[in-house]
From TrEMBL, chains A, B, C, D:
Domain of life: Bacteria
Recorded GO MF terms: nucleotide binding; oxidoreductase activity
Organism expressing this protein natively: Paenibacillus ginsengarvi
Protein name: Gfo/Idh/MocA family oxidoreductase
Gfo/Idh/MocA-like oxidoreductase N-terminal domain residues: 6-129
Domain GFO/IDH/MocA-like oxidoreductase: 140-286
Keywords, alphabetical: Oxidoreductase
Pfam families found in the cross-reference section: GFO_IDH_MocA, GFO_IDH_MocA_C3
PANTHER family per record: BCDNA.GH03377
Length: 386, 386, 386, 386
């Protein structure tokens, strides 16, 4: 009668911490689960801040040292939402402690780290996932279904663009997302990693890439490390921006399709412009995060004269996850992508398997990220290891 | 071998004169016609202006008295593009002179005049049309085809809105389109007449209406009578605006559908916002003049999950008229609606019939206009005579 | 330090019950409140169903008789989400029991009932609201701010359309929303009530109306009373549909603006097509529920040549409520409108005032609903009492 | 009083021949010119076909050998609209004969040829242009004005995509546009050449590129050489497709901006999907051919909360060329881009200068095309000669 509990320990409580916390909180409200998620403990270094975050978001306890979460035997799952430079250490330690893991993207600072994380997770036999939440947009999941069932035919093209504009002001400070030692890369690991994940999910593996990267604003005032959109300048000195503001690459997929990818934080007017189009021999799809519930679908077998892109509001029972929310036309938002992914995670833990995207996906994603970065440096095409 | 000529005499040479002249000029370029349109003569009161217009637009001769066109035996077709108060006199005289006629909309100042025009045309046995050009947008004509072939099922609703904003400035002068003695009504005969024509064309006859009309700016500086968008104030006195700025009505169609109609020249931001949506038991269509090549189509028999409004770019061979222009995706514009209607007119003259919309349509349109106006005055539902 | 509790007792647990429950659950996560909402008890007639609903949605206890909620002294607020025929009895009893109240729309079966509810609430001095959730869409709230601060100038027009299509199949059963004795009216009280609320909120009071109503499918198989979109036929007999499938009306606002309103459940392809446009002397706004985060804004004082409707994604700090959710461009959904309204309700209870929309708004809304209905019956314009 | 004549001799009379002929025919109707274009003669190899084309499109005479046009002293301007392999020979001969020239794009088969054409034109001192008609879309020309006047600030990004889908059926025949000996390249010279021209026009010169090209359908049935969309298979044998179906490249602009370009004839559902977005430090623009009258504009200096992309219908007096056509909101189409370019050509001939884009632009465009092609072959970045 009473369900097996999955007691969660989360590290980090800012943007992603909020998104994950909310998802755990909402999960049983919407989904019928085989396990019961319990918001057991949250970890952060600032005692007062972490205490407040725990209270506000509904965590039962808190720790100021993340290692304590691994030691506690009332924790089953570790959720890692901290900056990228910490993922490998935390995930490997969590795996060794026998905890299940969900880790924010990109999985690590580079493929070598990501590979070690995957190995540790496999060795420990734990359930693991990487939080590429856009896979869990109903419209995208439905696009996947259309592609897999052959409705678009042979895929020839994918083009994806992910544009933001929040750091364009040269006086915006040097936050952690702009420091290589903390984040590994800039736009590349932050935004492009999402586009690569969608490419792998929807079209398949990339085999080779050629890319370019650039940094438009090369020096910035020193700012709060933890800062997001509203980060404050904290110092009158300037520091070097050693990560990319923008990145683009051309790629070939294993199935012969061509890929064109671009991500930038200098796309003025695009607040969160995550978009793609896929063209196949029998149809095409288009998607845009700013109206994320909609999928544009073109089908070649529509009658002559009646052909055109359809705007499908993916809020109907036929659409993945939509049935648990609201009647058709009553749209959902960004946060629901996290509820959906946490639902899969709980299914994985209940069934003892690692739902996709998991650390293997995170590792392969990192191989592409690394290849693009090396290509940008060497100005050569780079082959992705298989 | 050489084709029968249709020698045209046109009265009026401003906005509509330009649109019609251009259509005659382009007609043989695009369409294979059974007759040869000849731009024979143009009439206007100002000798210098009409001479210049003739030269610029390609007319062979000009007259300063429109009656001269009726007297000339080298004129087969009279094209009336003058203000509304002149239509009846000109058309009846032209019919009596045995000339074919195309007349701008609205057909007349009221249904009584329109009825006399229809009668005169019928008595004379001439070919006649009214220039409701929006029927000749390929997207709309294709919508008609879909409705007639039952693709939308039983029609339940039509809602049409026609918004402009060019007279909103209270200092915009009192041009002829704002004087009842010249135009009969304001927005009503100018814009709503188009929506009514589309309603009759696409859904069928209206049987009863209840309406309201209003004038937001009741006094304006005296301006050039002939003026359009750039009309100048010519006098420091003010005159009363005695026509409607806005009109709306509810109506019932003979087939049981409900109609909701609104037209205004106070729709800020809408330069030429002619739009409608029609809902049937099996599908719906939407159209908007600002992207006039597109038809939005929803079909209920699309598979579950793949339902949504399609954006059809009506530039393909399957679409009416589109085949004579450019390859798919290479759009046409406003002026092509006139080329298309003149093509029908030439077919009518070649085949000795009056293509729709003709004076009978103009008369029935005027019955609806009059009924709405009476309803607005009496605040009662008014039945449309059959 | 510990906050005053607001202990909630909710009656009804289906569509609206789910929406409200979720809102209470999420409220403290997003907003910093002066009171603490407690999901104390839920009431419903079916013991097993209400027990399960309580468990799933997070209510501490349940009752099978709503009157029990009024008797319990551990309940401060009654939330009424049952069919329309029960609102008056429940609300009046709740007010007399000294409970605060939030009631679903429409407030009652008619203005007389609504008036008595308002009176009872005022007499009891309790806090009361009506759940017109669309007022709490950030885009709409921002439109209100623009209008109030004069950015659109004098308002000339509002046109609103609310279209759904879930009952178009003639075999869809006769659920409670199609029975006059239970719901009072059909599309009118369900959808049009929302449009009227937005009209009153954004433009002001209506003074007179003329309307029409129609029922396209007049007999339906007997179905589950409680059913929504997936309701099942439960009987092989047919019953009469005695409410409207569609309604439209013309109205005049106290400030001189013209209103055109239409609602239908026969708008094929429109799942939840709640839309409006407002035109003023200096600008216009457009909104559409299917992309509810976006506001279209036209401003006349934009430079010549650069004028056009802007698509504002109302997810920025400048937009009402948006600051508590996610970074710009990370959209919210339908359910957030309820979180926002419950936030206002808690502010009201904390500050001992009844935030708008409250029972006075529900009553005035009902006056308009009643006037439209009488107008449709009498085919006369009907004046709205002030 | 009577104007100097510009007597035109046109070579080729299919798709581009039709577009150019129509433009010459309409030119004096819309524009006030300092010279008078005369449709003097048309040349084509098939006597009957060229005779009919001349009659239908309004040419005074015809020739079956294009060289005859160069010999005639009643020809001032040669218009070249034939397949790409003929441009160099014709243009050089025309220049040597002292004729002005407008030539279709791409200018030649490669940069070497294009360079010789430019040299010949310069040596002869004639007026020359290349027909990149998209520069003459009012929305694009207005975008240029905004960029040049600094409204978008420093340009960081241009991404352009040009997608068609007319050859996707593997049974579509091997027409001239698919044979390297005739067209030089496939999608690259046909579609990508347009995107490169817009890039050079709007952002500036590209300095280096890395590209990829692919051919998805490598063998096709032999078809009519002259065929377009409706080309017929004429032979049961198959031939090799030796040009690209799709091409993409990354590029760097001289001003530091990054460019991402893609063109394909395998973009299912995109009939003529010519699109771009440009992001600058102060604003962005977006354009799409399928709604070619609209420009999307984002301006950073819009007030907080009111920021968003505006849809500007570029049909107002403030927009280039729009003033000669129709009132605001009455859109123009594809063919008007040719009327506009011919207007510039006539201005050039009247003023004895070569308006942009001219052979120098065609040559520089070809340098980029060649560099992308070499890059695709060598898998290296290739520097564009300055």
């Amino acid at each position: 009668m009473s369900k097996r509990q999955v007691r969660i320990g989360m590290i980090g409580y800012r943007f992603m911490g909020k998104a994950h916390s909310h998802a755990y909180r909402d999960l049983p409200f919407y989904f019928d689960l085989d396990v019961e998620p319990v918001m057991q403990a949250i970890a952060g270094r600032d005692p007062e801040a972490v205490r407040q975050a725990a209270g506000k978001m509904g965590w039962k306890s808190y720790e100021t040292d993340w290692r304590r979460l691994l030691e506690r035997d009332d924790i089953d799952l570790i959720d890692i939402g901290t900056p990228n430079d910490t993922h490998a250490e935390m995930a490997i330690a969590a795996a060794e402690a026998g905890k299940h893991i969900i880790c924010e993207k990109p999985l690590a600072m580079n493929a070598e780290q990501a590979g070690r994380m995957l190995e540790a997770a496999n060795r420990a036999g734990i359930v693991h996932m990487i939080c590429h939440n856009y896979r869990f947009v109903p419209a995208i999941r439905y696009a996947k279904h259309l592609i897999d069932s052959g409705r678009l035919g042979t895929i020839y093209h994918m083009r994806a663009t992910y544009l933001q504009d929040w750091i364009m002001d040269p006086k915006f400070p040097l936050v952690w997302r702009l420091r290589k030692e903390v984040c590994g890369s800039g736009t590349h690991g932050d935004l492009m990693a999402h586009s690569i994940d969608l490419a792998r999910y929807l079209v398949g593996e990339l085999t080779e890439v050629t890319g370019m990267m650039d940094t438009f604003v090369k020096c910035r005032p020193i700012g709060e490390m933890s800062g997001g959109l509203n980060a404050q300048v904290v110092d009158d000195r300037y520091g070097e921006v050693d990560v990319d503001d923008a990145v683009a690459f051309l790629g070939r997929f294993a199935n012969g399709a061509l890929g064109v990818f671009e991500a930038s934080r200098f796309g003025k007017g695009n607040r969160n412009g995550n978009r793609f189009e896929i063209n196949g021999s029998k149809g095409s799809v288009r998607w845009d995060m700013e109206n994320m519930n909609n999928l544009q679908l073109y089908l070649d077998d529509d009658e002559k004269g009646m052909q055109g892109f359809r705007t499908i509001n993916c809020t109907e029972e036929a659409h993945p996850y939509a049935g648990v929310y609201w009647p058709a036309g009553h749209i959902i938002g960004y946060e629901h992508t996290f509820i959906n992914i946490m639902h899969e995670l709980m299914r994985g833990i209940a069934g003892n398997f690692s739902p996709e995207p998991n650390f293997a996906d995170g590792y392969r994603n990192q191989l592409v990220l690394d290849a693009v970065e090396r290509s940008a440096l060497t100005k050569q095409w780079v082959t992705i290891p298989t």
